[in-house]
């Protein structure tokens, strides 16, 4: 089963992807994570992407679609969760082609329906474990033991450089202008399911499970 999680920055795509990985053995294909890894490694893609990401704008379609193609070839276990991809009409077309070439198809597009004003608050409070990547939030999801990752026990955490108010506003504008317009493509194919992304994290997980298990 292959699914797209669609929603603006901070909608909870990464949070819900991690749960689908843990609960169903699916594989998370996050272009944001792939690009951050490239930046960290100082690869040519990373060098090109860094300034664009720091500004909150979109990296080129060719770069991200190539990253997705590589990851599909590395194997997708029980299925792929596309997290933060596709983000433009050109990427949606590229994904169709990438899946076709591998005799695979899209089964669901889950739209996380959220209130954009509340998202700035979510994003500004976000941090992750520097070791295993588990996501946390200053108010909504603190580690059970202060300063210690629930998953791996690490005491090192990090925050993203693009998680400041000004960049978040650009990221939201990019979503509205370039990503939201791809929804009708999938609506026309009957693939879109809407989930209330403002509900508590566990409720969102249950709502997604109800769709996938229907
Ligand atoms: P990317 O990494 O994809 O970032 P994003 O889309 O801005 O999404 P986020 O990771 O910010 O949010 P999320 O929806 O995953 O929310 P999360 O679960 O973390 O992209 C970064 C950049 O890379 C882009 O700006 C672009 O430059 C580039 N890029 C990436 N992909 C690209 C592409 N395809 N094409 C071109 N460029 C690309 O949740 C947020 C916080 O809220 C967390 O703290 C979480 O704990 C909390 N939270 C989650 N759900 C809930 C809930 N239900 N209630 C309360 N709190 C919650
Ligand atoms: Zn950890």
UniProtKB/TrEMBL annotation:
PROSITE patterns: ADENYLATE_KINASE (PS00113)
Adenylate kinase active site lid domain sequence ranges: 126-162
Catalytic activity: AMP + ATP = 2 ADP
Gene Ontology terms: cellular component: cytoplasm
Recorded metabolic or biological pathway in which this protein acts: Purine metabolism; AMP biosynthesis via salvage pathway; AMP from ADP: step 1/1
CDD domains tied to this protein: ADK
Compartments, record wording: Cytoplasm
Residues engaged in binding ATP: 10-15, 126, 199
Pfam families attached to this UniProt entry: ADK, ADK_lid
RNA-binding among keywords: no
NMP: annotated span: 30-59
Residues the entry annotates as binding Zn(2+): 129, 132, 149, 152
Stored PANTHER family: NUCLEOTIDE KINASE
Subunit structure comment from the entry: Monomer.
UniProt cross-references to NCBIfam families, sorted A to Z: adk (TIGR01351), PRK00279.1-3 (NF001381), PRK14527.1 (NF011100), PRK14532.1 (NF011105)
Protein name: Adenylate kinase
Lineage: Bacteria, Pseudomonadati, Pseudomonadota, Alphaproteobacteria, Sphingomonadales
Name of encoding gene: adk
